[in-house]
Write a structure and sequence with these properties.
It is built from 13 helices and 44 strands. By secondary structure, the protein is of the alpha+beta class.
Length: 796
C-alpha cells in the first residue's frame, strides 16, 4: 500500500534532549455538532490517560479540588523518565477551538525539573502536528500563568511531520491540542513516606494545571479579497495550459462547498469569445521513491486557490476572478490583457458530425483510439491466481511512469483511469486513508496524484477516459464497498441503502459539488476524452432502470453545463446487461460496454448488435478472459482484432495491464497500430460484413466490416478463438497451419479492388493482389497462415 503518515493519538515529539515532564492532550472531535465554547469547568472534566509513544498508558490523571483555591485542578502523575499524555474527548467543542483567540492556564511544576517549559501543539488529521514556538518558561515550585494566541498568524508554527504551512482553516478542523512539558533534567525529589509516589522503585513527578480556559473574542467581519494573484507566463501558446494561483483573505471551513465559498474565473478571448470555469482549492505534495520502489508523499508549502484554462485560439485574452461566499461577501480582480500565440493544436474531441460512429478533434482530424486500461497502479485489491505477477500497488505513480512510457513506445494512445477509493477518489470514509475527510471534503493528495497522471498522459500522447464512479461503491454484492462509503448513513452520510444514491437530493448536491471540483481541476485538459459517469452501473444494488436513467440524465446535463469545453459524456454496462433507456439517452454521447467472453467473436457480434444500433459511437472498454499465459494472450488478440474489423469507435481495451507489461504483449498492439496507420474510416458506410468461407468445413471463421467500396476482414482458426470451456473460460490454444482459404465478401459495388493480406501478429503486408468484383460478391483466396490473418479490401 502507499506509505502515508501513521495517524494515532500519539503525537510526534521533537528530537531534543529534554527528559520529562508531560503532554496534556485535549482531544477535539473531527466530526460532530458544533456548539458554543466550552466552559472552564467542562474543560477540566473527562480526562483519561493517554499512551506513550510505545503504546503504554503514560500516567495517572485525576481531577481534584485545589489545595490553595478550592477550584478544580488536573493532577498528572508519572515516572519522571516518561513522557505523558492525557486525552479528553470534546466532540461538541470543535467550533469553540476554531473561534477561540487564546488558551490560558496556570501550571505548577514542583521543584526538581531543571529549566522547565511548556509548549502548545496542535494536531490535524490530515496535515499532522504543529507546534507553536517559542515555548513558555515555567518557574519550578510555583504557579505560572501561561497564555497562547491560537490564530495561525501568532508566533511561529512549526510542522512536526510535513513541510506545510499552518492556517486558520486547519485550526477549525483540529483533531487534538496538547501542552508539552520539557526540562533539561530533573533532581530526584524527596518521596520518603509516600509509597504511592515511589511505587515500583521509580519516583514520580506530579504536574498540576488549573483555570484552563478558551477565550473567544468578538471580531469584526473580515473583508473578502483576492490576494497574491500570480502573473501569467509572458509567453503562452494556443492549446497550452494557463494556471492561475491566488489566495483569499478568509480561510473557510470547507473550501470544497460552493455554498460556503465559490470562486469562478471568466476568461475572455478574441472575437468576443468567453469561458467560465470554477477555481479549486489545492495543496502541492512531494513524492519520494524508496529503495524498494514504494512511494511516500509529503505536503509542500501552503494550500492555495488555482484556476486552469486552455486557450483555443490565438489573440488577446484577459480574465476576471470572482469570489462569493455564504455570508454574502464578494469580490473580483481583473487582469491585464495578455497575448496567446498561434500553435499547432487539434483541440478537444467530439462526435464526428459526418459519421456519428467515430470521434474527431475540433480541427476535424480523426481520433482512432488504440488503448489499454490502467485504472489504478495495480488491477487487484486481493490475490488473483493468474499466470503473471501484479504490479505492486504501493508503486503508485511509478506504475503509471512505466505503463505510459511503454504504451507510447508501442503505438497506444488511449486508457481508462478510475477515481476509485483505493486510488484517486476525492471523497471516502476517514478510516480508509488519513487523507480522506469524509463526504464533501476532498482528498488533496489524490487530486495531486491525478494531476500527475493527466499530465503524464498528455506528455506521452495518451487520451484518458476518466471514470467518476465504480459499481462497487454502491453495490451490496459485486465488489461491494458500501460499508465504507461516505454516503452510507453508518459512515455519516445521508442514505441507508445504496440504491437511494440515485434519487436522494442531498446525495445529488454532493455529486454536483464533486463534479464542479473535477471540471475545475481537470476540465482544461484536451487529453481527457470522456467523463465516464459509472463503471458497470448495472451491478449497483437493486438496479432500477427509471431511477438510473433519470440520474444519468441529470448528472450528464449538469456536468455538460459547467464544462466550457463540453467534452463527451458516457457510462458503462456489462456484457450481459443492456438498458436502452439509459444508453439511448441523448446526454450519453458514447455507448460503452465490456465483453468478458472466452468466445470473443460471439461476444462482439452480440454486443455490437445492441450498442452499434444506437446511432452514436460505441466502444468495448473492457475485456480480458483467461488464466494461463496462452489463454490471456489469445483472448487479447481476439479482442484487438475483433474490434479492429468492426465499426466500433476504436480498438477494444484490455483489462490486464500488468499482464501486458510483464509479458511484453505490447508487440500485439504494434501489429494492430500498423494495420490502422493512416486510415480514416469515416464516410465509408461500414457495417458488419457478411463473409462466407468456401471450404475448410467448420474450422475457419471470419469477422469484418464493409462499406460499398471497402472492407476490413479478419480470418481465424475457430478452434482457437471460438473455443470455450465451462465457466466461460477459453480453451488452451493450439497453433496450426491453415492452408489457402477462399472467401467471399458480399455487398461491394462492381469494380477493381486492391486486396492486401496482413500479418496479424507481426504487422506488415504479406501479399497484395488486384481482384475484380462483379457487384454481387468479391471472391479472394487468403494465403496459408497460422492462427489468423487480416485483410484490407479497397476499390481502386
Amino acid at each position: 500500500m502507499i506509505r502515508l503518515r501513521n495517524t494515532s493519538s500519539r503525537m510526534a515529539w521533537p528530537n531534543a534532549r529534554m527528559t520529562w515532564i508531560a503532554a496534556l492532550v485535549l482531544a477535539v472531535a473531527a466530526r460532530g455538532q458544533e456548539t458554543t465554547p466550552a466552559s472552564q469547568a467542562a474543560l477540566m472534566a473527562g480526562w483519561q490517560p493517554g499512551e506513550t509513544l510505545e503504546g503504554r498508558p503514560s500516567c495517572r490523571v485525576t481531577t481534584v479540588a485545589g489545595r490553595e483555591t478550592g477550584s478544580e485542578e488536573l493532577r498528572i502523575a508519572a515516572p519522571a523518565s516518561l513522557g505523558v499524555a492525557i486525552r479528553r474527548n470534546v466532540v461538541h467543542e470543535r467550533d469553540a477551538w476554531g473561534r477561540a483567540q487564546r488558551l490560558t492556564a496556570e501550571v505548577f511544576v514542583p521543584a526538581g525539573p531543571k529549566s522547565p517549559s511548556v509548549e502548545l501543539a496542535v494536531e490535524h488529521d490530515l496535515w499532522g502536528g504543529f507546534a507553536l514556538h517559542p515555548t513558555r518558561l515555567l518557574r519550578a515550585g510555583e504557579w505560572t500563568p501561561v497564555a497562547w494566541t491560537l490564530d495561525a498568524g501568532s508566533g511561529e508554527w512549526i510542522g512536526l511531520e510535513h513541510p506545510v504551512a499552518y492556517n486558520d482553516a486547519m485550526r477549525r478542523q483540529l483533531a487534538a491540542v496538547s501542552l508539552r512539558f520539557y526540562s533539561q533534567g530533573c533532581d530526584a525529589p524527596d518521596v520518603a513516606g509516600d509509597p504511592d509516589r515511589a511505587a515500583g522503585g521509580s519516583w514520580v513527578v506530579e504536574a498540576r494545571v488549573r483555570r484552563l480556559k478558551l477565550e473567544v473574542e468578538a471580531t469584526a467581519p473580515m473583508d473578502l479579497r483576492i490576494t497574491q494573484l500570480r502573473p501569467v507566463a509572458p509567453s503562452l501558446r494556443q492549446g497550452e495550459l494557463l494556471e492561475l494561483s491566488f489566495d483569499l483573505t478568509i480561510e473557510y471551513d470547507n473550501p470544497f462547498d460552493p455554498d460556503e465559498i465559490a470562486v469562478d474565473v471568466d476568461f475572455f478571448g478574441p472575437a468576443g469569445t468567453s469561458f467560465t470555469l470554477p477555481a479549486f482549492y489545492s495543496q502541492d505534495f512531494v513524492r519520494r521513491i524508496l529503495d524498494d520502489g514504494a512511494e511516500t508523499y509529503s505536503p509542500r508549502g501552503a494550500a492555495s486557490w488555482k484556476a486552469r484554462f486552455t486557450p483555443l485560439a490565438p489573440g488577446p485574452h484577459h480574465y476576471v476572478v470572482r469570489a462569493r461566499d455564504g455570508a454574502g461577501r464578494s469580490c473580483e480582480v481583473r487582469s491585464e490583457s495578455f497575448e496567446v500565440s498561434a500553435a499547432a493544436f487539434h483541440g478537444f474531441l467530439r462526435v464526428d458530425k459526418q459519421d456519428m460512429r467515430y470521434l474527431c478533434f475540433d480541427d476535424g482530424a480523426l481520433f482512432y483510439p488504440v488503448g489499454l486500461i490502467v485504472r489504478s497502479p495495480s488491477e487487484q485489491r486481493w490475490k488473483y491466481n493468474y499466470d503473471f505477477e501484479q504490479m505492486p500497488a504501493d508503486f503508485g505513480l511509478s506504475a503509471y511512469d512505466d505503463y505510459f512510457t511503454s504504451m507510447a513506445q508501442n503505438g497506444l494512445n488511449h486508457t481508462r483511469v478510475w477515481m476509485a477509493s483505493w486510488w484517486n477518489a476525492l471523497e471516502w470514509s476517514r478510516g480508509y486513508s488519513p487523507y480522506y475527510q469524509g463526504l464533501g471534503r476532498y482528498n488533496l493528495l489524490n487530486a495531486w496524484r491525478q494531476d500527475y497522471v493527466i499530465n503524464l498522459a498528455q506528455r506521452h500522447g495518451i487520451y484518458v477516459n476518466l471514470t467518476l464512479h465504480n459499481h462497487g461503491q454502491f453495490s451490496l454484492s459485486a465488489d461491494s464497498e458500501w460499508p465504507e462509503n461516505p454516503y452510507n448513513r453508518e459512515r455519516g452520510g445521508p442514505i441507508s441503502q445504496p440504491q437511494e444514491f440515485f434519487s436522494d437530493a442531498e446525495c445529488f448536491r454532493h455529486v454536483r459539488n464533486r463534479f464542479r471540483y473535477i471540471v475545475a481541476r481537470w476540465g482544461y485538459s484536451p487529453h481527457i476524452v470522456i467523463w465516464e459517469l459509472f463503471n458497470e452501473v448495472n451491478l449497483v444494488a437493486n438496479y432500477d432502470s427509471p431511477r438510473i436513467r433519470d440520474w444519468h440524465r441529470e448528472a450528464a446535463r449538469y456536468l455538460k453545463s459547467i464544462d466550457p469545453y463540453r467534452r463527451l459524456i458516457s457510462t458503462h454496462f456489462t456484457v450481459h446487461h443492456y438498458d436502452p433507456e439509459v444508453m439511448g439517452l441523448p446526454e450519453i454521447e458514447v455507448a460503452q460496454v465490456n465483453c468478458y467472453r472466452a468466445n470473443m467473436i460471439g461476444g462482439l457480434r452480440d454486443v455490437f448488435g445492441k450498442y452499434g444500433s444506437l446511432g452514436k459511437p460505441a466502444l468495448v472498454n473492457e475485456f480480458g478472459v483467461g488464466v494461463t499465459h496462452p489463454q490471456l494472450r489469445h483472448n487479447l488478440h481476439a479482442g484487438l482484432w475483433g474490434t479492429s474489423v468492426m465499426p466500433w469507435l476504436g480498438v477494444g481495451m484490455f483489462w490486464w495491464a500488468s499482464y501486458t507489461h510483464e509479458k511484453n504483449e505490447y508487440l500485439q498492439y504494434l501489429a494492430v497500430e500498423d494495420f490502422h496507420r493512416g486510415e480514416d474510416y469515416r464516410g465509408r458506410g461500414y457495417e458488419v460484413a457478411s463473409v462466407k468461407i468456401n471450404g475448410g468445413g467448420d474450422l475457419i471463421g471470419a469477422l469484418g466490416m464493409r462499406g460499398p467500396q471497402s472492407a476490413r476482414i479478419w480470418i481465424y482458426d475457430r478452434r482457437i478463438y471460438e473455443k470455450e470451456e465451462p465457466g466461460d473460460r477459453p480453451g488452451e490454444p493450439v497453433a496450426r497451419r491453415i492452408p489457402e482459404v477462399e472467401f467471399q465478401v458480399e455487398g461491394l459495388t462492381a469494380g477493381r479492388y486492391r486486396v492486401e493480406f496482413w500479418d496479424a501478429w507481426k504487422g506488415g503486408v504479406l501479399e497484395r493482389r488486384e481482384i475484380e468484383c462483379d457487384g454481387n460478391a468479391l471472391t479472394a483466396k487468403a494465403p496459408a497462415f497460422i492462427r489468423d490473418i487480416a485483410c484490407k479490401i479497397d476499390r481502386l
